[in-house]
Amino acid sequence: MQHEAHAEHHEAHADHTEHGHQHDAHAHHHAPAVTWSMAVQATLHCLTGCAIGEVLGMVIGTAFGWGNLPTMVLAIVLAFFFGYSLTLRGVLRAGVDFRTAFRVALAADTLSIAVMELIDNGVILVWPSAMEATLSDALFWISLAISLAIAFVVTAPVNKWTIGRGKGHAVVHQYHH
Predict the structure, then answer these.
(1) Count of beta carbons in the 10 Å neighbourhood of residue 125
(2) Cα gap 154→138, rounded to integer Å
(3) pLDDT band at 1 (very low <50, low <70, confident <90, very high)
(4) pLDDT at residue 3 above 70?
(5) The model's pTM
(6) 135 C-beta neighbours (distance < 10 Å), count
(7) Would you place residue 170 in the very low, low, confident or very high pLDDT band (cuts 50, 70, 90)?
(8) HSE on the CB side for 55, CA within 13 Å?
(9) pLDDT tens digits, one per residue of 122-142
(10) Staple partner for 57: which of 72, 78, 154, 157, CB 3.0–4.6 Å?
(11) Nearest in space to 83 (alpha carbons), one of 175, 168, 140, 177
């Protein structure tokens, strides 16, 4: 009788172990490991578009003598524009139609750019005298560089999290060959 109980226990354990191995293989198949390198690459991509838009917006706003609010709004709009444009360019090169490429860019970049812009502009807003600095002031460039660096540090984990869930820049990777 003990032999039968032992055999049943062994079979149950084998089924459980086998199921566990299948579950692990299944999990690895659908959720590849997301590395910090992937997150950093996605964040650098975001940072590039944001920096281009921020600087261009500040230059245009300053050149036209606009106040802080319209200049900041323009800089944010341009940051989104250039962030999306960089992704759009790469996806279009993969032979995807414009409508699909635009949707991919929105899905890939919206959260990343939004976080980057929130942090970047938030730092500038709280930095004493940064909003009054002009393009010829060292404070303008120093505060902008540091605010973008802080935004990068905050945004990289966000990108790692979204890529790990098959969102964000994970959407773009299927179009790269």
Answers:
(1) 12
(2) 24
(3) very low
(4) no
(5) 0.76
(6) 12
(7) low
(8) 11
(9) 999 999 999 888 889 999 999
(10) 78
(11) 168
